[in-house]
Sequence to fold (239 residues):
Amino acid sequence: MARGKKIYDGKAKTLFKGSEPGTIIQYFKDDATAFNAKKHEIISGKGVLNNRLSEFFMTGLKELGIPTHFIKRLNMREQLVMSAEIIPLEVVVRNFSAGSMSNRLGIKEGTRLPRPIVEFYYKNDELDDPLVTEEHAVAFNWATQIELDEIVTIALRVNDYLSGVMKAVGIRLIDFKIEIGRVFDNDYQGLLIADEISPDSCRLWDIETGEKLDKDVFRRDLGDLKDAYTEVAKRLGVI
Ligand code: TMP
Fold:
C-alpha cells in the first residue's frame, strides 16, 4: 500500500497518511528511548517484533469486542490503523508496584497491589509526562468525565485480557500503558485503543524466575532487549 505524507515522527514510530481517508500507516522503528529520550539506542529488529506483538494484542482485544485502531498489518514494519484524535493522557494500569510508583511511594518493586490501580499521566514531553488526576483532565478539557469513566472500563478490560494471555505463557503482567483516541467515522464513533501495545509499553516478568522481558532491560542495562522481546514473541507463538 502506498504511503502518503509523513504526519508525525515519534520516538519509536513514524506515522504516514494511508491511501484511504481516515487511515494512517504506523511504521515501527528500531529506536529505543528512555527517560524522555535522554537515553537512545538502535536495537536492530525491535520494530519488527513490536509490529507483530502489537498486531497480536490488538487483534485479541478486537475479538473481545474492545475497540482498537488496528485495521491490518501491511508488512514487517508497517500496520494500517484508523486515524484518531489522541486524548493527551497516558493511561497506566498497575497490578504490582514497580517503576515510578515504587519510587514515588516507597513500595518495594514486585509488591502485589490490593487491586489494579489506574493512573493518568499528562502527555507532555517538556513536563516529563506528570501524574495527574481525573480532576485535572476534566478541568483542562483533556477529556470529559464520561470519557474518563469509559477509559477506566476499557483499561481494566485490557488488563484482564493481557494478564490472562501473559499468565498462560508464564509471564506476570506487572503494569502497562495505553493511549486512547476519539474517532468520528461513519462506521464507528467513540473511543478506541490507539498507539501500540508491546513490551515497550508493559512490564513483563517471568513468573518463575522474575526475569524482566520488557523495556526495563534497556532502561536499566540488564541485557539484550531484542532477546527479551523475542522470548515474549516466541512464547505467544507470534514468531
Ligand atoms: P512508570 O512506572 O515509569 O510510570 O511506567 C508505567 C508503565 O508505563 C510501564 O509499563 C512502562 C510504561 N511507560 C510507557 O509506555 N511510556 C512511558 O513514557 C513511561 C514513562 C512508561
In short: The longest strand covers residues 171-184. The pocket of thymidine-5'-phosphate is lined by residues 92, 98-101, 129, 175-177, 201-203 (CB under 6 Å). Residues 6-82 form a domain with the Phosphorylase Kinase; domain 1 fold (CATH 3.30.200.20). Helices lie at 46-63, 99-105, 134-139, 145-167, 216-219, 225-235.
